[in-house]
Amino acid sequence: LKEKLFMEIGPGDSLSSAVLLYQHDAKSILIDSGDYATDDLNFYNSLIRQIKFDKDRKRILEHIKSRDQLLKICRSKYFTNGLKDLKKIPSNSVDHIFSQAVLEHIKKDEFIDTIKELYRITKKNGSHSHEIDFKDHLSGSINNLRFSEKVWESNLFYKSGFYTNRIRYSTMINYMVDCGFSIKIINKKIWNILPLEKNKLHNDFQKHEDINLKTYECRIVLTK
């Protein structure tokens, strides 16, 4: 991992990945749609104490005075404007990109552009690893598919805290392939039966094949 550049999409409430990657001499970019990462130094100091850094490096990290200083020491950058910041990253510059249950939260009308940008910034032969959760994020079912596009994509729902883009499994995979990625599906999870009767879904989703609706989680590996 030494001197490789990693990117995490959606680090969420902490910058832990920057610290963990620095342990392996890797550089990192953490990118999110807002500034959600804690600036509580006690959290980061606790993490640092658990990692086997060499003495000099650990001594420096244990005396950090701010989140910004931590990022600088760890050779990491934290961006908080989503797609806008993604467009500023140089082409063919990132070795590996990863996310954990994040891609489903990217706004639907920004999803394809986001995948195009991720392809652009990935180095030739670079790779991705993404865990994707296709369930609704309220009940772990598909109740989010009950709503019309107009209602679900409204600002009220988008800012609700439980928004997902509702892009189904095969459609999402096709977007990635169309953007140029080679793809390997790992650990695809499928319900034996739909958790919600199909006639209770909005008409737009009743048209989908059952297998597309039954797929509720997967891990994918992408290569450029």
Overview of this structure, please?
The chain is α/β, with parallel strands linked by helices and 224 residues long. Helix content is 35%, strand content 23%. It contains eleven helices and seven strands. It has helices spanning 16-23, 41-50, 55-61, 67-73, 82-86, 108-121, 149-152, 155-158, 169-178, 203-206, 210-214, and strands at residues 5-9, 27-31, 76-79, 94-100, 122-133, 182-190, 215-223. A seven-stranded mixed sheet has the order 3-2-1-4-5-7-6, sandwiched between helices. Strand 4, helix 6 (108-121) and strand 5 (122-133) form a beta-alpha-beta unit. The chain is elongated and about 65 Å long. The chain starts with a strand and ends with a strand. The mean pLDDT is 95.
For the biggest β-sheet, the strand order reads 3-2-1-4-5-7-6
Round the Cα radius of gyration to an integer and report it.
19 Å
Low-confidence stretches: none
C-alpha termini separation: 18 Å
The biggest beta sheet reads:
7 strands, mixed
Task: Give descriptors for this structure.
alpha/beta, 11 helices, 23% strand, 224 residues, 7 strands, 35% helix
Care to give the gist of this entry?
With about 220 residues, this protein is of the alpha/beta class.
